Amino acid sequence: MRIIDSFAIASLLTVGFTAPSLAATIANGSFETPALSPGGAQGFAAGSSIGGWNVLGGGVVLLETTYSESAPNSINAFTAAEGFNSLDLTGSGNTGTDSGVEQAIATNAGEVYRLAFSVGAANGGPVYQTPSSLGLSIDSGSRIAFTNSTFSAGTVNWQSYFYDFTATSGSTSIAFLNSTLDNNFVGLDNVQISTISSAASVPEPFTIIGSIVGGSAAFRMRKKLKSNSTDKN
């Protein structure tokens, strides 16, 4: 009897303090840090940081939403998908398919996450005529291609995409990489993450304790009935 009751108390102490899951977050998902002057552009070399993002390969360029280019390119404004800034994964000109950004985020193993983001395609002049394609890599895995083939003359057209993945550890690496060679602009903006489903949850403490205490009570009742039955004989 006392052994069972003690076990119930021990279970309460053990299960009652299960750590809650932490929500995953993206740092600087809209690339608003650093702030740029109106119409400004700033290049970032490999190994540098953009507000939580690590720059890869040949580098990238941060563009303020009113940045423009004159003829022959004729882009009136590289309008951002959200906020004031967006990122060009091709860098200055096109530095190759190893150019991009990467960020490690805190995740919970077994949980399913949805990564949402916008891909921009510019149209105007000789160097902005073809679709913009980027590759998404999770934990250094194979690239998943996302291509925006929709154009708006003289500006940037943005298309929204998402990708679901299951985290395998407490930290997940997310990389966006340039995946085009015949275009000088692959826009990235408005990167967000949300939880789709949680890992198998631990039963609520009161459920486990209730079962144990209930079992203890039932055990006492059966023992009492058995004792009464024996006395009658």
Describe, in short, the structure shown.
The protein has 233 residues and is of the alpha+beta class. The chain has helices at residues 2-15, 205-232, and strands at 41-44, 49-50, 53-56, 60-64, 85-88, 100-106, 112-122, 132-138, 144-148, 156-166, 171-178, 187-197.
Question: Could you give me the name of the CATH homologous superfamily of the largest domain?
Answer: Galactose-binding domain-like
CATH architecture of the largest domain: Sandwich
Main β-sheet: number of strands, strand sense, barrel status? 6 strands, antiparallel
What percentage of amino acids are in beta strands?
25-35%
Anisotropy-based shape: elongated
- CATH topology label of the largest domain: Jelly Rolls
Structural class designation = alpha+beta
CATH class of the largest domain: Mainly Beta
Order of helices and strands: HEEEEEEEEEEEEH
